[in-house]
Design a protein that fits this description.
By secondary structure, this protein is α/β, with parallel strands linked by helices. Helices cover 57% and strands 11% of the residues. The protein has a four-stranded parallel β-sheet with strand order 2-1-3-4, sandwiched between helices. The two termini are 33 Å apart.
C-alpha cells in the first residue's frame, strides 16, 4: 500500500568499505531514488547509508543504518525508499522480516504500487534465480575439473580466475536484480522490446551500465535458462 505521506526516508547500501569511500554504486542509487521522487511527487527528508561486507548482513542487528532508517520512518509516519530490492536484501526471509516491521517500503525500480506481496514475490524470484545461477556455475566447474582442464601458467590462470569470478559475481548480482522485473513482464505477455523500454523507463541499467534493447533482454533470459 502506498503511504499517504509525501515524505520519504532514503536507505542506500554499499557492500564494501572501499565502495563506501569511493561512492561506487552509491551515486547510482541516489540518482535512481531522485528520479523516482521527482516523477512521483515525493520528498526525501532523511538519508541513511550502510557500508558493510555483505557477509552475515541479513540480520537487522548487523544493519544499524537500516534500523535507524526504520526508526526515523516510524517517527515521521512515512515510508523507506530504496533504489533496488537487493539494497534491502537478496534473502527472502530477511525481506519478509522487514515487512513485519510495519514500516512501508518503496522500491524505486518497481514503482510506488508494489505492495508487500509483490516485494515478497520479487525477492523469492531473485533468490531462486541466484540459486540456479550458482548451481550452473558449480556444475560447469565440476565438469571442467572432471575433464582435467588446466589453463597455461598457474599465475596467469589464477589472475584470469579472479577476474572471471569478479565479472561473474557482478553478472549474478545484476541478473538477480533485473530478472524479477523481466520475468514478471514476460508473464504478462510483454515483448522483448517492451520489457527493454520498461527497464529503461525505471532507470535500470544493463550489466555494463548501458541502456536496454531487445537483444540485452534476450541475453539475460538466455543466461537464466
Amino acid at each position: 500500500m502506498t503511504p499517504a505521506s509525501k515524505s520519504l526516508v532514503a536507505y542506500y547500501r554499499v557492500s564494501t568499505a572501499k565502495q563506501g569511500r569511493s561512492g561506487l554504486g552509491l551515486e547510482a542509487q541516489r540518482q535512481a531514488v531522485a528520479r523516482f521522487v521527482e516523477a512521483e511527487g515525493f520528498e526525501v527528508v532523511a538519508e541513511f547509508v550502510e557500508v558493510e561486507t555483505g557477509k552475515g548482513a541479513d540480520a537487522i542487528e548487523r544493519r544499524p543504518q537500516l534500523a535507524a532508517a526504520l526508526a526515523e520512518a516510524r517517527r515521521l509516519k512515512c515510508a523507506v525508499v530504496v533504489a533496488k530490492l537487493d539494497r534491502l536484501s537478496r534473502d527472502v526471509a530477511f525481506v519478509a522480516g522487514l515487512m513485519a516491521q510495519r514500516v512501508p517500503f518503496i522500491v524505486a525500480e518497481l514503482g510506488r504500487d508494489a505492495d508487500p506481496f509483490m516485494l515478497h514475490l520479487y525477492a523469492a524470484l531473485a533468490e531462486k534465480e541466484r540459486a540456479m545461477i550458482s548451481k550452473r556455475t558449480k556444475d560447469a566447474l565440476a565438469a571442467a575439473k572432471a575433464r582435467g582442464t588446466r589453463l597455461g601458467n598457474p599465475r596467469i590462470a589464477e589472475a584470469q580466475a579472479k577476474g572471471s569470478a569478479t565479472n561473474k559475481a557482478k553478472a549474478i548480482e545484476h541478473d538477480a536484480g533485473a530478472l524479477p522485473i523481466v520475468r514478471a513482464m514476460q508473464a504478462k505477455g510483454a515483448s522483448l522490446r517492451m520489457i527493454a523500454a520498461e527497464l529503461n523507463a525505471r532507470g535500470v541499467r544493463t550489466a555494463r551500465g548501458g541502456t536496454w534493447a531487445a537483444t540485452q533482454v534476450s541475453a539475460i533470459l538466455s543466461r537464466a535458462a
